[in-house]
Structure formats: C-alpha cells, structure tokens
Design a protein that fits this description.
With 282 residues, the chain is of the alpha/beta class. The radius of gyration is 19 Å and the shape is globular.
Length: 282
C-alpha cells in the first residue's frame, strides 16, 4: 500500500490565512443578513463588519476557542504531528493579531491563561478520501454556554424532539447573540451526539440533509424557531436563526441522545482542503 504525505507547512499556511479571515471578515451570507436588518442598533452591527474588514480588528472581542474537524484518507500521514500543525497555526494567528486569548490551561482551580489561545480542540475522522479537509469553528464562549444534551426516551416521537429544541432556544437563545446557526446531533452515545451537533455547525447555510426525513425535520425546527421572534441580538426584529442542520448516528436500543449546539450571528467558520505532496510505499 502507498501512503500519501501532507506537508505540514503548506497546511499550516492555509489555516493561518483562513483563521485570520474568519476573525476579521464576515462571510457573504452573514454580511447580507446584517445589511438587510433595519432594527435596533443595525447601524452599529453594519459598521462593525466594515471596520473589522478595513482595519483587521476582530469582528467580536470574544475571538473564541478554535475547534477543528479533520477528515483524512486512511492512507494519509502528516509530515509533523497533526495537533502540532493545528496548534501552531492558532498560536501564530492569535499572537500576531489583536485577538483575545480565551483559553485557560485547566478548568477548575487556577484557570491560568495559556497566552496564545491554544490548545485547540481536534476531532479526527479517517475516510476513504484522497485528500485532507479541515473544517473549523471559532467558537465564542457565549454561544458555547448554550450547548445542551438531552437523553430522550428512545420512544420519543418527532414532535417531542422538536419541542426539546424549540423550548431550549426559547429559554436561552437570546444569550447567544442571535440570529443563531443551530446544530443538532442525534444518536451515538452522549459524547458522540455533542460532537455531531458541533459538526453540524460546519455545514454551509443552504446545505440540505441527504435524508429527506431529516431534511424535513431541519425545516420544521427552522420554521418553529423563527416563529419565536427573538430576532437580532434578542431585540425581537429579524430572524432568530439562520439555519438548522442535523447530524445523526446509530445508537443503542435503550438510548436517544439529542445534543444542541449553536453559533452566534457571526458564524465564524471555515474549510481548508489540501492534497498530499508525495507518496511512498509502506
């Protein structure tokens, strides 16, 4: 079998470029949504996007914790350890820009800042693809605090699942700087469902679920959430959510984990793809 080698430096450079971009430049979808908004503080939100892009200042003072989802072919290896590549990219971006360091070294006792926004969170998925795809989220603390895991009854029906999600956003959605991007993970184990809900946030806004049943579920939840009229920044004007996506996995006969993750109105996410630069026999 031949192994394919991905050059660490090339991957790091691509990640640096994209991490810089998503922290300072709103994507086209978000920009259009903000410019269409005419409610309270609309001029502030519009000016924020313009100033960030023109000056290189961050779109939000909470420049987040970076979470990576790496999809790599089973025969692909990296010229340096993967987590080192990803953390080096984060460290260089956050150390060379006026971006806040938001990561502490341990969660309970001293909570000392690491002073470079590392380590990032890394999920690796081995596939049959012939290249590497790295999706990432720049995840703010406010939206992260809305993450919720429900261990639903395995006999729960679609209506009950919808109510779980809608009631959660109804109670807490305004705290996450809406309009929100909503990711729902279903199945697997408890921890798997949460990862799936985060992975769902990396999808493009208009991406449709390949399973028509889950596509319909996404649409029903989307409609219900926008009927809440939480609006931009919780001010009751404009959409409550931009999109709803579901990722699902097989699960135990006695379980039905349902995880909900959200992203704030800036939806700072990106994708980097890279081809191997060399092959060799194993």
């Amino acid at each position: 079998m031949k192994i394919a080698i991905v050059d660490a430096k090339r991957l790091e450079e691509k990640l640096i470029q994209q991490l810089q971009r998503v922290n300072t430049t709103a994507n086209d979808f978000v920009t259009n949504q903000v410019h269409a908004y005419e409610g309270p503080f609309s001029d502030v939100l519009k000016r924020n996007i313009t100033v960030a892009q023109q000056t290189g200042l961050p779109l939000c003072q909470d420049t987040g914790m970076v979470e990576f989802f790496v999809f790599a072919g089973y025969n692909i290896v990296f010229s340096e350890p993967l987590e080192e590549i990803l953390n080096n990219a984060v460290k260089k971006v956050y150390s060379s820009n006026p971006f806040r360091y938001s990561v502490v070294s341990e969660p309970l006792y001293e909570r000392k800042n690491t002073h470079d926004n590392t380590p990032a969170i890394v999920h690796l998925f081995h596939t049959r693809r012939e290249d590497v795809e790295v999706r990432f989220l720049v995840k703010g603390g406010g939206s992260e605090n809305l993450t919720k895991l429900f261990m639903a009854s395995p006999s729960a029906n679609v209506h009950e699942i919808i109510e779980l999600v809608v009631n959660h956003i109804k109670e807490h959605g305004a705290k996450g700087c809406p309009p929100l991007n909503v990711g729902i993970g279903m199945g697997g184990s408890a921890d798997k469902a949460v990862v799936l809900s985060k992975l769902a946030l990396t999808k493009s806004f208009d991406e449709t679920n390949e399973d028509s049943r889950y596509a319909q579920l996404e649409d029903e939840i989307y409609q219900r959430l926008n009927e809440l009229k939480i609006g931009f920044q919780g001010l009751f004007v404009g959409p409550t959510v931009y999109s709803v996506h579901v990722e699902y996995a097989p699960t135990h006969i006695a379980n039905l984990p349902i995880a909900v993750s959200v992203d704030c109105y800036l939806c700072r996410k990106g994708v980097v793809r890279i081809e191997p630069h060399a092959t060799q026999d194993l």
